[in-house]
């Protein structure tokens, strides 16, 4: 097993040169987010991920979670690791100070989250869900609910869940059947079965706070009749102590392709008189409230993909350096060499590396915009940043996860046959990555949201503003004196042209009916992701060139430019085929499907 090495230098480059950490530090309440603070936080988080979490990843996958006495038991070492995570204050990193958190900006929390996922996505999932529960309760919970649940959810002493899916419903939440009956004391009694509940129960903490979608007796049909309830595993007394167990239990642990160290539970609510829950917000607005959790989770799933991809890349690179096989083509003599000397292995590793860097940069820029949207004193600036975040969220959730899955698969290819053997650990990354494209809405769902709500309905206004930002970078690259940067700019120019043509096609077709645009929605999502990644790699090349002038010997900065050129030559050219699929291929998809199925 190779060790995990936190990519701290690249993370600091993204923070300081692309995401604008200095601008975030100027926002109200974020004055402590200095480069020195960021460096210290990243170093400590990297050490924790590498030394505490990463060593548990493969053993946890092998041992898995087991159900004993009706309660899931985590693999060896996980209880201690989670206790260290809480003691280190990591759950409180980006929580507002008023709620007992450290109030660091999201732009700094994002690379920390990536590293925790590189250590183990199975471990990182727990924090993701708890943060979502905190966000919902802090925004729409009653003062009593906030007093009773928030302090220990924020500290990590308790954990939270997102309880949506049912056997007959899947992603169609309008089909939710779990019942909520009003009780005389103002609470509700819940009856129903939920599936795919990540960390639905475990032995890491004494209490689990479930955020449950259910339908109040007599509620309207469909999504309009869904309400949200907070349902604790154990009741919380007025003095904060834990009382009796609520009427809910983990019926079984799902047998999954990956994430074997994550207890994904089938949960039964109300075997007896009913699980006691309190209404969150107003009746019949549950889906609206749950989307507070889901939107946050979608970005976090994107960070999962980057973390997994980084770990798969590092494992493949380490193997390629040590595996001796064959002679170097064009080399002198017949000496056998490490496979990293072979051109195609290098191509695969570079492909993995440059796409990870593109995703990391885009995630950093998105996180910075989230901070600006939340804290900038200028309302217009807040609105512009929020529009950018909403446009790019399907890219973070959809494109990042598809790329992460492909990188994990490519990691096995670098290993060759031994990558297909579980003992190497490469296969685990692919198995774990597979669910990320499904979590919080499949890639198809993200693509429909992108094409419909984010492009078609607004006539391309917001994406047009983004294209203008891309054009400014492309123009700077093409006007550069360095031939390497000009070449990057030329390829980026073609990618933007392809994106612009696809946007025009979608806006035109949307006016007459959504089907053609939706048929080409996944290719469009990939197209936007690739070009947005190229935009960030172009910005990175410009920043690296500027920094190289006083420091011409920097290997990192030189490699940053070379990686940007590789992205321009090997990834951006895919834009032409994707443009064709959106503009010309969508109609053919619909026509063929009429007779093919």
UniProtKB/TrEMBL annotation:
Organism: Ottowia pentelensis
Name of the featured protein: Acyl-CoA dehydrogenase
Residues of the Acyl-CoA oxidase/dehydrogenase middle domain: 162-269
EC supergroup of this enzyme: oxidoreductase
Family under the similarity heading: Belongs to the acyl-CoA dehydrogenase family.
InterPro entries: Acyl-CoA_dh-like_C_dom, Acyl-CoA_Oxase/DH_mid-dom, Acyl-CoA_Oxase/DH_mid-dom_sf, AcylCo_DH-like_C, AcylCo_DH/oxidase_C, AcylCoA_DH/ox_N, AcylCoA_DH/ox_N_sf, AcylCoA_DH/oxidase_NM_dom_sf
Cofactor: FAD
Domain Acetyl-CoA dehydrogenase-like C-terminal, first and last residues per copy: 473-591
All residue ranges annotated as the Acyl-CoA dehydrogenase/oxidase N-terminal domain in the record: 36-157
EC number: 1.3.8.-
GO molecular function: oxidoreductase activity
Residue ranges constituting the Acyl-CoA dehydrogenase/oxidase C-terminal domain according to the UniProt record: 284-450
Keyword field: FAD, Flavoprotein, Oxidoreductase
SUPFAM superfamilies associated with the record: Acyl-CoA dehydrogenase C-terminal domain-like (SSF47203), Acyl-CoA dehydrogenase NM domain-like (SSF56645)
